[in-house]
C-alpha cells in the first residue's frame, strides 16, 4: 500500500517539478545554472517522498574549477532524485535525444541548456560533442556525464564510453568522479525508511598535457577509482 501511495505522489511531483522547471527555462532559456535548480526541484522533495536518507561528502566537487567533466555511475531512473542534490553551479549534462519527447521533462531538459546527443547519427553526435567541448573551454560550464552510457541496475559498473574522456582531454579540463553507493537492490519502498545512500566525490583527475594516446589509461584509472569507492561505501553501509 505504501509503495502505491509513494508512486502516486512521485507521479504528481514529477509533473509539478517539470512545470516549474519549464517555467524557469522559459524565463531564462539555456542559462547554465538552470540544470542545478531543476535537479534540486526533482531531488529534494523526491528523496523525502521516497523515504531515502542521502548522506553526501562532495568537497572535491564543490571546490572544483569552473569547468570540468563530472563522471558519475548510473544505476536507475531514480538517479535523478538521488544525485540531483549534488549537481554544482553552472553544470549541464549530456542525454539521449529521445528525452526531448518526454512531456514537460524533455522540454525543460532542453531549455536548461543540456546537450541532447543523437547516437543514431555519427555526424550529429560528433557535432554535439564539439559544441560541448567549446562549452567547457569558453563558458566556464561543467559537463555531467554518465560514462557507462546506460543503467547498470545497481551492480558492478559497466565499461565506460570514450566520449566524456575525449571531451576532457580536448578541452584540457579535469575529471571529477562522483560515486553513489549501490542502492537500487537495497531500496525498500514499502517501508517508511526505505534506505540510506552515500554519495562521494573523488579528487580531480587532471588531463592537461594528455593526448588521445592516454585515453585508455585515463578511462581505466577513473573506472578503478570509482569502483573502489563504491565498494567501500557499500561495505560501510553493510557494516552499519
Structurally, the number of domains stands at 1
Number of strands: 7
Shape: globular
CATH class: Alpha Beta
Tell me the fraction of residues in β-strands, as a range. Answer: 15-25%
Distance between the termini: 28 Å
From the 3D structure, determine the CATH topology. Glycerol-3-phosphate (1)-acyltransferase
The helix/strand order is HHEHEHEHEHEHEEH
The Rg value, from CA coordinates, equals 17 Å
CATH architecture: 3-Layer(aba) Sandwich
- The structural class is alpha/beta
Domain Phospholipid/glycerol acyltransferase: 68-183
Catalytic activity: a 1-acyl-sn-glycero-3-phosphate + an acyl-CoA = a 1,2-diacyl-sn-glycero-3-phosphate + CoA
GO molecular function, one term: 1-acylglycerol-3-phosphate O-acyltransferase activity
Enzyme class: transferase
Could you walk me through the main structural features you see in this protein, from its secondary elements to its overall organization?
Helices cover 46% and strands 15% of the residues. It has 240 residues and is α/β, with parallel strands linked by helices. The protein has a single domain (2-239), classed as Glycerol-3-phosphate (1)-acyltransferase, CATH 3.40.1130. Strands 1-7-6-2-5-3-4 form a 7-stranded mixed sheet, sandwiched between helices. The two termini are 28 Å apart. Keywords: Acyltransferase, Lipid biosynthesis, Lipid metabolism, Membrane, Phospholipid biosynthesis, Phospholipid metabolism, Transferase, Transmembrane, Transmembrane helix. The chain crosses the membrane at residues 164-184. GO terms for molecular function: 1-acylglycerol-3-phosphate O-acyltransferase activity.
